[in-house]
Amino acid sequence: KIFNMKLKSNIGTADRTFRLILSIILIIFFYTGFLPGLSGVIALIVALLLTVSSLLSYCPIYRLLKLNSIF
To answer: Which of 12, 19, 34, 43 could, after both became Cys, cross-link 26 (CB 3.0–4.6 A)?
Structure first.
């Protein structure tokens, strides 16, 4: 049953764009050494989560909070 779940989009275009830009910034900060060590790894994980959520147009946290950024 888990694999039959359909994700209803809850992230709008502006939100998706913001998430992708923030992901790129976090990745750049890591690779330039601005965020070294553990903080850099955390930044990469956050960047991955932001990228995946923007590509899927779905955010599970938004769903829990009953938010929707689609206008």
So the answer is: 43
d(CA 37, CA 44): 11
Give pTM, 2 decimals: 0.83
Which residue type, as a one-letter code, is found at position 45? I
Radius of gyration of the chain (CA): 14
Instruction: Give the torsion through C-alpha atoms of 32, 38, 43, 45, to 10 deg.
Output: 130
pLDDT in tens, 22-67: 999 999 999 999 999 999 999 999 999 999 999 999 998 998 998 8
The token pair at 65 is: 């909070």
